[in-house]
Amino acid sequence: MAFVHPSRRQATRSHFVPALRFSLAAGALAAAACIPSTTTAQTNNAGSASATAPSPDPRVGLRSGMMDAAEAYWNLKVLSKTPPSEKFVGITNSDLAFTGKYAIQGSYNGYQIWDISNPGNPRLETAYFCPASQSDVSVYKNLLFVSGEGLSGRIDCGGEGVKDTVSSERLRGLRIFDISDIKHPVNVGNVQTCRGSHTHTVLADPKDPDNVYVYISGSAGVRSPSELPGCSHETPDKDPNSALFRIEVIKVPVAHPEQAAIVSSPRIFNDLVAPPRHGEAPADIEAAARAAAAARARGGFTANVMGSEMVLPPAFTTPMLDSIVQARGGTGAPTAADSAALRAGLPGIIAKMMGGPAGSGNGPRPGPTQCHDITVYPAIGLAGGACEGYGLLLDISDPAHPVRIGAVADSNFSYWHSATFNNDGTKVLFTDEWGGGGQPKCRATDKPEWGADAIFTLENRKMVFQSYYKLPAAQTAEENCVAHNGSMIPIPGRDVMVQAWYQGGISVFDWTDVKNPHEIAYFDRGPVDSTHMVMGGSWSVYWYNGVLVSSEIARGLDIFQLTPSAFLSQNELDAARSVHLDYLNAQGQPHYVWPASFSLARAYVDQLERSNGLPSARIAAVRNSLDSAEEASGAQRRAALDAVATQIEGEASSSSDAAKVQKLAGAVRELASASR
Amino acid sequence: MTATNYLRYSTALLMAAALAACGGGNHQSAVVSSPAPAGAAFEQGEAAAIARARADSARRPYTEADVAFMTGMIGHHAQAIEMSRMAPTHGASATVQTLAERIINAQEDEIATMQRWLRDRLQPVPDGKPHGMKMMHDGMEHEMLMPGMLTDAQMKQLDESRGKEFDRLFLTYMIQHHRGALTMVNELFSSYGAGQDELVFKFASDVNVDQTTEIARMERMLFALAMEKYSP
């Protein structure tokens, strides 16, 4: 159904009201707080004025403080900052999940559930003490899932840790709670896993409503088989049940969560063929992949070396072929059978060259043994797996059996951490959590392509590298900072994302143009401590029903709202706000669908003004038509909107931004159908 | 809405007002503020005090194994840095130089982390020099190399090599070195009571995944180097 919005003029006007009312009280503060800047008039909604960030960047040099650090923000406002409840103060806050009016905030001491129906004043509903790292949280209907990875997690939720290396008291894996009564969660089941659960991903299969699937990612050490039978840290060639080189899939019967169990352990890394050259720069990868394919096509030899397909030079393989011919007492050119024999023998030869058979006790077999995080996007049937040195693309059409369909590596990436798709499913962004999140990787001396995001387009289900995005404000050596968790903001027709950068704060950026991702809003605090590094900052920040909710490791829960700017009009923000989610796990990416609304149509008009996709006279005319249609009702409104849609459809072909014009026409047409 | 909550809410409004006042939403202006501790049911200042107290006193107990790991890994990392610093002057390829640069950046930061952890627990803090662990044995002090560390002879051999030979040795020895670090992590986690401290657990787990990932990368580089001599 259509959502009724205040008109854009009202919205703009209301923006000034508090300023007037509080001008005396706020005057001194505002005067002290405002960064000197050239004054320009409030722009119209499309914001055609120049769109440049404040300079010098006010995030540099902010005063430190645990709860009273100086702050800088741009194009957003702070709705609330809420410290943790007593038992959670001084303990790391981790990831977030949302259901209804609640935000569930993980902590190394358990989790807190906040009622955020008034985002200016979150109310604590439950503080559930149950220590575990990292307490990554997800929800599905009445179920709450919590990850446990560390060695000190206890089945009984006690805080005393587990000292024995083998213990029946230890919990490493997935805890399941029934939160039907939000104030009294009940631990209805646990699933123990060999490597614990660093993170997890909930996948709801539309074809299977009775069950929900949870993918477990864990990068910590493998447990002793004496603690959890069947766990093996041997490599798969020695023990087919190895806990390495696989993920675990837990099937949870929704009506009987206590029966949750591991149903498969897909080896999505097997025979990984990806970055076939040492450079591993994206261009090299592409060129080498072509070279390998070409070599294979002409009957040449390639070898899978440490997870990469490499072309073997003829000077390397010809003598081997000759010796095969000799060995069978033959002469002349090698036959197809000789080539086949060499192909069969090559893996052994390569392994020997590399110092013994793969995984022969000479240290671990190279290649990823685990994923850090997997983001499933059921709407397109794909998942992005961030798995040690690789970014993987997985086909998840069969939820219990994900299949790898693509892989990328990058010499600038240290450790692939997480993935986010754009709403259309035509792009994917991977993060590199260089230094594991505990190190200051945003100093002026740290390279902009290290510890950053890498953006890929998806072309025929293949990932093609486009660019990097990194927080553009240098941070101090006392601030742990690197790319971390975020989510898409439902700005229609654009790819806008909000992302946590630990003590680098939060950064909102636009990656519609994949070659030119750029920041459009931010929030940052000074370091927790200016004398030495203390862990802090935003672990994750997600858009949820109109607000940005951030889990601050040391400071608690922060909630923000974007404000209109040259980059985002009020109409675009209103259109985003019209998207409603019943629940959100960022690792189970929702597909945003915009209900028909005047805001949606006006948002596209604003974007066409920005891109010069329609002449300015037409922009003004369409705006007027929409305004008068909104004032009309029933059949009259419908007829007016249909007429506007028809006219716009006719203009698409002559526009430089035809796709956007079509979107506008579609939005107006839909609005017409919704008018009765 | 309680009185304190109302107070807090109006503070939020005030901040919003301050924002709006900065050029009336002008996109070019950012706001820098120095918030006074906000009034709340649970005072921000109180939260800060509890956080500090907890950081000082309520740490989970750590063991000798934790201390040995954090101490021994400093010298271990220092050697990786010393090896990596040779790259620019020893004719390393661009790829190896990039790798070396990353190792220096990563492991310098990690040394700082380990030193801070030890200092906070009033343990002796080794300087970031590449030596083994000092051990007392029969009343004599011995220096024991941590797993994977290069011997003096291996360091000398590396230092004397140049160009492709340097690349080959660097990769070979750094793989050996990284594998030693993985051995140290495994030893830590199989010690009674170790790894209960969240920072040690996180740090050791990070070392484990980072270096596993880097070993794979170096193995591929080494193979590519081996193939080069067959290429025209």
Defining traits:
heterodimer; A: 676 residues; alpha+beta; Methylamine Dehydrogenase, Chain H; 3 domains; five-stranded antiparallel beta sheet; 11 helices; 32 strands; 28% strand; disordered N terminus; B: 232 residues; mainly alpha; Ferritin; 2 domains; two-stranded antiparallel ribbon; 7 helices; 3 strands; 6% strand
Describe this structure in words.
The complex is a heterodimer of chains A (about 675) and B (about 230). Chain A is α+β, with helices and mostly antiparallel strands. Chain A folds into three domains: about 70-270 and about 365-585, YVTN repeat-like/Quinoprotein amine dehydrogenase (Methylamine Dehydrogenase, Chain H); about 280-355, no CATH class; about 600-675. In chain A, about 20% of the residues lie in helices and about 30% in strands. A five-stranded antiparallel sheet of chain A has the order 1-28-27-26-25, with no helix packed on it. Chain A has a five-stranded antiparallel sheet with strand order 6-5-4-3-32, with no helix packed on it. Chain A has a four-stranded antiparallel sheet with strand order 2-31-30-29, with no helix packed on it. Chain A is globular and about 90 Å long. By secondary structure, chain B is mainly alpha-helical. Chain B folds into two domains: about 1-20 and about 40-60, no CATH class; about 60-230, Up-down Bundle (Ferritin). Chain B contains seven helices and three strands. Chain B has helices at about 5-20, 45-55, 65-85, 95-120, 150-160, 165-190, 200-230; strands at about 30-35, 135, 140-145. A two-stranded antiparallel ribbon of chain B has the order 2-3. In chain B, helix 3 (about 65-85) runs antiparallel to helix 4, helix 5 runs antiparallel to helix 6 and helix 6 packs antiparallel against helix 7. The longest helix of chain B has about 30 residues, at about 200-230.
